[in-house]
Design a protein that fits this description.
Order of helices and strands: HHHH
Structural class: mainly alpha
Mean pLDDT: 80
Oligomer: single chain
Helix content: over 70%
Number of domains: 1
Low-confidence stretches: none
Distance between the termini: 55 Å
CATH topology: Helix Hairpins
Number of helices: 4
Shape: rod-shaped
CATH class: Mainly Alpha
Length: 201
């Protein structure tokens, strides 16, 4: 009976010995595979994702800065347009009307007013010159207003395109961050990588 017990304990020890050796070998193999996986696949891939995400975030910051600059520029243009429409151009119209009244107060007849061959006095010439100068000034203001409106329209299109670009960058960042999370798990885990190395997939 004592001999049976000894043989049983020896068998248990033998099994435990080989089991521990097997588990140790498996642990070494797992460690080696894991190390190879991290060195050759996981770490470089994570670095690629980090670099891509950092680049996208920098592009987003730059685009947001450009958008902010566009918003400021559009605000300034709108302020100039409002000034021209509400103040400068009405004042120019009033100036023209005032000069027209001065011309009417000269009591010229139609022939004297429109005949280019009649010599006008210096005073009359000055009144007409002031009226013409006022008209030219209003025309310049009108041209300036038109230029500002065209510039505003172009910048508004650019602003809309920049907003679309920022939205696209945010989507790309979200996709890259999601893909980064998948690394090391699921379809991008150690087992699929190992099977791919062994040519079993």
């Amino acid at each position: 009976m004592q001999k049976v017990k000894e043989e049983f304990f020896l068998s248990v020890i033998f099994v435990l010995k080989w089991l521990s050796l097997g588990l140790g070998a498996l642990a070494i193999v797992y460690f080696a595979i894991s190390l190879a996986y991290h060195k050759s696949y996981y770490d470089p891939l994570i670095q690629e994702y980090d670099l891509e995400i950092a680049t996208l975030k920098k592009n987003k910051i730059d685009s947001e800065a450009s958008l902010n600059s566009m918003n400021i520029s559009l605000h300034e243009i709108q302020a100039k347009i409002d000034m021209l429409k509400k103040t400068d151009i009405p004042a120019a119209r009033n100036a023209i009307a005032l000069h027209e009244k001065k011309i009417e107060s000269l009591d010229e007849d139609i022939i004297d007013r429109y005949n280019p061959f009649i010599e006008k006095s210096d005073k009359v010439k000055q009144v007409y010159q002031e009226r013409d100068t006022a008209i030219e000034h209003k025309e310049r203001l009108d041209d300036q207003l038109e230029d500002l409106r065209m510039t505003q329209a172009v910048k508004a299109v650019s602003r809309s395109e920049m907003l679309d670009r920022i939205n696209q960058i945010e989507i790309f960042i979200s996709v890259e961050e999601h893909e980064k999370e998948r690394v090391g798990t699921g379809a991008l885990g150690v087992l699929p990588w190992l099977l791919g190395i062994l040519g079993l997939t």
